[in-house]
């Protein structure tokens, strides 16, 4: 601010408000303006339909999700001509390759961190995935 003609600068972004003023600029205001923003409502999901213990799927109850360890592009197979690393029903051991996540032009083989059976594929082949996004549901064994 010393190298410019600015005497005051105010920036406001969502929940952040930054105000800078040159000392002795004479722009001292006797009132402070407070802006109250309306909270953005988060989507409310409806509660899942209640199931009695007899009708609940045992595959879901004892299953764990396997989450993406990084941001990138998810691939089920090493190349378009090759078979998928794993399919629903496959048994996997700790250290088995489950998929590839491409990040910054590097193909990273993602390995299982526990032994179990693939119950569900949760990510689409070729889709972008986020860190922590569930990729597979696996029933530990």
CATH architecture of the domain at 62-140: Beta Barrel
Largest beta sheet: what is the strand line-up? Answer: 3-10-8-5
Helix content: under 10%
Task: Describe the global form.
Answer: elongated
Indicate the low-confidence ranges by residue numbers: 28-38, 50-60
Tell how many strands the DSSP assignment holds: 10
CATH class of the domain at 62-140: Mainly Beta
What structural category do the secondary elements indicate?
Answer: mainly beta
Instruction: Provide a count of the helices.
Output: 1
Strand residue percentage: 35-45%
Spatial separation of the terminal alpha carbons: 63 Å
Mean pLDDT: 78
Instruction: Name the helix and strand elements from N-terminus to C-terminus, one letter apiece.
Output: EEHEEEEEEEE
CATH topology-level fold name of the domain at 62-140: OB fold (Dihydrolipoamide Acetyltransferase, E2P)
Query: In CATH, what is the homologous superfamily of the domain at 62-140?
Result: RNA polymerase II/Efflux pump adaptor protein, barrel-sandwich hybrid domain
Report on the biggest sheet: 4 strands, antiparallel
Computed Rg:
26 Å
Summarize the structure.
It contains one helix and ten strands. The protein has 141 residues and is mainly β.
């Amino acid at each position: 601010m010393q190298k410019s003609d600015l005497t005051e600068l105010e920036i406001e972004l969502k929940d952040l408000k930054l105000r800078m003023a040159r000392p002795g600029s004479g722009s001292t205001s006797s009132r402070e303006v407070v802006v109250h923003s309306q909270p953005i409502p988060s989507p409310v999901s409806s509660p899942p339909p209640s199931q009695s213990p007899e009708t609940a799927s045992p595959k879901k109850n004892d299953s764990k999700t396997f989450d993406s360890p990084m941001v990138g592009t998810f691939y089920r197979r090493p190349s378009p001509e090759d078979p998928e690393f794993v399919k629903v029903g496959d048994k996997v051991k700790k250290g088995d390759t489950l998929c590839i996540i491409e990040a910054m032009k590097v193909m990273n083989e993602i390995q299982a961190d526990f032994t179990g059976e693939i119950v569900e594929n949760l990510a689409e082949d070729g889709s972008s995935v986020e860190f922590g996004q569930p990729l597979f549901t696996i029933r530990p064994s």
